[in-house]
Request: fold
Amino acid sequence: MVSETVHCERHGKRRATFVCSHLVGSLRTQQALGYYHAEDPGNPYPHAWCGLCDRYLFDHGGEWNDETEAFAGVKVLCSECYDEIRKINLNKPSLADALLNMGKPPKNARGKRT
Ligand SMILES: [Zn+2]
Ligand SMILES: [Zn+2]
Reply:
């Protein structure tokens, strides 16, 4: 895969990375959500997603498809933002994991199917 570049408001021109919208939010809230990533040997910035997405993925056959990607709401970020996200989500206890361990994954859609 050719590595693309992105122009980041904070960091300027950097390598483009792909993370779920929840992890993007963690950059602002500093709240850890868990860090999961694609098997992508040799790529220092594999596609990444949070504990909520991982749970959703697991519940929906473990495959990325239109439905699971819609849940993740994947965003493009620069490689430095990605590093910050990785730090936040690896070094802190994850709220998402805590909730998942209680067996009650938070759901935005309360049983409502779209
Ligand atoms: Zn997520
Ligand atoms: Zn950035």
Observations:
- Residues 8, 10-11, 78, 80-81 surround zinc ion (ligand 2) (CB under 6 Å).
- The beta strands are 5-8, 12-19, 36-37, 48-49, 75-78.
